[in-house]
Design goal:
By secondary structure, this protein is an alpha/beta fold. It has a single domain, classed as Rossmann fold (3-Layer(aba) Sandwich). The protein is 40% helix and 15% strand. The protein is built from 14 helices and 15 strands. The strands form five sheets. Strands 3-2-1-4-5-7-12 form a seven-stranded parallel sheet, sandwiched between helices. A two-stranded parallel sheet has the order 6-15. Strands 8-11 form a two-stranded parallel ribbon. Strand 2, helix 2 and strand 3 form a beta-alpha-beta unit. Helix 8 runs parallel beside helix 11. Keywords: Cell wall biogenesis/degradation, Cytoplasm, Lyase, NAD. It is an enzyme of class 4 (lyase). Its EC number is 4.1.1.35. Its cofactor is NAD(+).
Amino acid sequence: MAGRVDLDGNPINPMTICMIGAGGFIGSHLCEKLMSETPHTVLAVDVYSDKIKHLLEPTSLPWNGRIQFHRINIKNDSRLEGLIKMADLTVNLAAICTPADYNTRPLDTIYSNFIDALPVVKYCSENGKRLVHFSTCEVYGKTIGAFLPEDSPLRQDPAYFVLSEDASPCIFGPIEKQRWSYACAKQLIERLIYAEGAENGLEFTIVRPFNWIGPRMDFIPGIDGPSEGVPRVLACFSNNLLRHEPLKLVDGGHSQRTFIYIKDAIEAVFLMIENPARANGHIFNVGNPNNEVTVKQLAEMMTQVYSKVSGETPLETPTVDVSSKEFYGEGYDDSDKRIPDMTIINRQLGWNPKTSLWDLLESTLTYQHRTYAEAVKQAMSKTTAN
């Protein structure tokens, strides 16, 4: 750790980071890297600590004293401003970010992603503290290409589907399609942060993740999350594989997505944290345009990878089609294709993702099979017994 320097050769001084949402998927990986590779201190704020328990105990760990857990719900806790004041930098990861909730809990979704984030932005701005705020690729909504005729050759033109931070429009569906409640709330908080920067000098960086995947992501229903919950696509498919059930393809699985390995993505965030001169005032896409697949192709690949890591034979009918109304309820809508433009992050931070889709799926499914397979078996046997 001695003699660490930033991208411009300047020494990196130890800093204190207030990380809101530190106990989640992204937060746990970011905390791990900060503890093992830097001298920085983390004030870890969350309502749960399960995913970072291995960093908090035992007290003989080499980073003991550099990570403190604060069990705080940011909705209504006056201690938050004090922690932000103590820190040099705040990283805000807190959000409701599960598509099944956008329809069924639109009010919670809007409050969580906009109203609850307002005090964080305010405290950072008023106290002259830097903010790294996590947004989402959902802010782009639908691509321009989605509105072209099916047979239009322009659908193949990158200008109509590659998403650029400072040029692409943000196109949402009609108000009755409540699926856009999340994207709209996230876009509005981005605009507010940007305005705080312009009017009050807030130093900020906004991160737009494109499907970050890896160990500890999302939840497996009934094992480390609610039994009736519907997680995001990769965790949904993992859950089906662990339970030997066909993977459900919503509306045929024709939507296209890119996926990036969590460890690649955390490298990008790391560079943002330690290179404020290059990151401040910027919005960064963080994704892997090389790992693009349709949801149907993802299901096929996951079936193959899971068979390899588990030694189990795939089902004869590995997938079934379901309608979005049946799966998500009334008011669901979707974006067709999301490819991140990587120009800005590459120019500012020299960052590029490395891990292939096959490798990141193998790492994730190996972890899930090892961690959850036995628990899923027990849960299934209880259900059968009842």
